[in-house]
Amino acid sequence: MHFGTWFNSPPPKGNWIERYMIPSLIALFLVAVTTILIAIALRWLILGNVGVLYLLPVFVVAMRWGLIPALICAVVSVAASAFFFYPPIFSFKAQNWDNQVDLVLFTIVAVATSHLASRLRRKDEVERLREALIGSVSHELRTPLASIMGASSVIANAEGVKNDPHLSTLANVVREEAERLNHDIQNLLDATRISSDGIHPKREWIDPADIVNVAIERRARALASHKVRVTISDTVSLFEGDPVLFDQAIGQILSNAAKYSPAHSEIEVDIRHESDQIVFSVSDRGAGMTREDQTRLGERFYRSPRLASTTAGSGLGIWIARAFLEASGGSIAAESGGLNQGSKVTIRMPASKVPAREAEATDE
Amino acid sequence: MNNHAPSVLLVDDEAQIRRFLRAGFEMDGFNVQDAENGSEGIKNATMRPPDLIILDLALPDVDGSEVLARLRAWSNVPVIVLSVRSNEDEKVKLLQLGADDYVVKPFGMAELLARSRAAIRRHTRNQSGDPVVSLGRLSVDLANRSVFVDGERLSLTRKEFRLLQILAQHAGNVVTHSQLLNEIWGTGHDQDSHYLRIFVRKLRQKIEVDPTKPKLLLTELGVGYRLSTDESVKTTQH
To answer: What is the location of CATH 1.10.10.10 in chain B?
Structure first.
């Protein structure tokens, strides 16, 4: 099992045997192992204060099983170090004042550590619960949404509705708002997926011009009131990445460009090859970014304070884009001339060398 | 061709989804029967074989891919799969299992109808043996190996023609990368998707009005390519 997940998994539930007895026995075992390891180490090394080494099992037990087993572990650790390593050896008495102070301090540190660790773990549990809740709620919301979207598309196409301008507008309102809701839910799902499962990008050859076109095409509705211009330099080669994640990332940036710039203004997408990178930049003529916006862009839930009240958004889009790009070895950065000077968001992806077996790719 | 109204079998456990699908298909002139789980779906498909099956993947009793595999054991009826986003591998697997196409939930009716008609048309074309596929400006004669755009004969290389031929045989429906790679370059070229990218680029330069804004040869991210029929509705981000 992966160590990190083991560490973070919730403490066992159930009766007191599972909750306290077994962890305490494991704690005793860990203290015994630590004692043996210290004894072996002392044959070759001179260790100043061996008591400190017992913090290790205390910490592990506190992280994994909580306060009570950790306290038991701490007490046993103090006893073990006094018995085995502080003179007089094989007695619980401490010979001199120094060592007794050591033992008291050690106990306090052990208790504090276990307490702190268990608090950390509880916070982690709350976070996990929140993620799970968002995940399942979003999932539950999608099923009725699929029916709403499907049904509204059927209504919009019905004879009586198609020819009535009012009714067809309304049918489209239903559909478009359902789409928007779906988009937000998708973002929430992506966000929980990123923080709970991590991202596992695939590697596939991608044609940069093609994927940018697909991304624009797929967001035709969001970009409808803007002029999108794509320029591609001739030297751009294929690159390796996950096409679905890349589309999501550049799509978020395109939608943002449209959202924060006036209708009918231009959005420019520039694709070029720079030494060992394929560079995509998306420039708009919109609200621009302050210095704070630029550095904090891509932080989870960060939204520019000046725009947050006037435009809808969750502050997740660019965070998701950044996570997707970084998982594929890419990066994202923003620049802006300042307020109302437009923004330019740049994606950099590593250019992989296209295998030179061109002979097979050509014919006649 | 078909004088009778085409029939469709809807297999989905969500009653509301079945209701709007039924309305949408009936308004388009289909005869509709439905099933709320996999085993009922298979039973209906056996008792009254439909011209088309719409199959949801998340069924309460049998996995959608299992239903598809069982169907394919004895029937080549067109099947369109209803899938969810963010699982391209699953889509590819289902297409390899013999699904004709997929739509991603949530979807609009127009998109599903376009995919459905394309799948039915291919099925009847396969049976009638008509060698010419006409797609608006583009017409591909599969027998004479000739391609016309706006009435002008194109000169294509052998592999370019093969690529277009496979896509034309599935006109309106998606064809996976690995299917194209295997059929054009032979087996063992699954990893060589860059060949395909290069050929698609070349082919677009010959058949598209604006190769940078393709309207005919469309990319299905992470899955494959689709040759658009006139009525094909492009997948838009919902």
So the answer is: 131-227
pLDDT digits (tens, 9 = 90+) for A64-98: 777 788 778 888 887 888 788 877 777 776 666 66
The answer to whether residues A323 and B156 touch, using CB atoms and an 8 Å cutoff, is no
Residues in B closer than 8 angstroms to A179, CB to CB, are 106, 238
Taking CB atoms and an 8 Å cut-off, how many pairs form between chains A and B?
128
Residue A269 has pLDDT above 50, yes or no: yes
Q: How far apart are the first and last CA of chain A?
A: 54
Q: Determine phi and psi for A246, rounding to 5 degrees.
A: -65, -40
Give the chain A residue whose CA is nearest to the CA of B18. Answer: A147
Tokens of A314: 């969750």
Q: How many helices (H) and strands (E) does chain A have?
A: 14, 7
Test B221 with A221 for CB contact under 8 angstroms.
Answer: no
Name the helix (H) or strand (E) containing A273.
strand A266-274
Judged by CB atoms closer than 8 Å, whether chains meet at A146 and B194 is answered as no
Residues of chain B neighbouring A213 (CB-CB closer than 8 A): 212-214, 219
Residues of A in contact with B32 (CB under 8 A): none
CATH number of B7-127: 3.40.50.2300
The reported pLDDT for the residue numbered A9 is 55
Alpha-carbon distance of A202 to A280, in angstroms, equals: 20
Give the confidence band of B237 by pLDDT, cuts at 50, 70, 90.
Answer: very low
| Domain(s) of CATH 3.40.50.2300: residues in chain B | 7-127
Instruction: State how far the Cα of A64 lies from the Cα of A73, in Å rounded to an integer.
Output: 12
Interface membership of A352 toward B (CB under 8 Å): no
Chain B nearest-CA distance from A324, in A, is 13
Distances from the Cα of A135 to the Cαs of A93, A146, A183, in angstroms? 56, 17, 14
ipTM of the complex: 0.84
A284 at interface of B, judged by CB pairs closer than 8 A: no
Q: Provide, for chain B, the percentages of residues in helix, strand and coil under a 3-state DSSP scheme, each rounded to the nearest 5.
A: 40, 20, 40
CATH label, B131-227, candidates 3.40.630.30, 3.90.79.10, 3.40.50.261, 1.10.10.10: 1.10.10.10
* B24–A147 C-beta distance less than 8 A: no
Distance CA A228, CA A271 (A): 13
Question: CA nearest B132: which of B89, B168, B102?
Answer: B168
- pLDDT, one tens digit per residue, over B110-142 is 999 999 999 999 888 877 777 888 888 889 988
Instruction: Give the separation between CA B113 and CA A227, rounded to whole angstroms.
Output: 30
Least Cα separation, residue A362 to chain B (angstroms) = 8
Architecture of the structural domain at A204-350: 2-Layer Sandwich (3.30)
Nearest C-alpha neighbor of B44 from the set B18, B23, B20: B18
Residue with tokens 């949530």: B106
Confidence check: pLDDT of A358 > 80: no
**Range of lowest pLDDT (A194-208, A345-359, B141-155):** A345-359
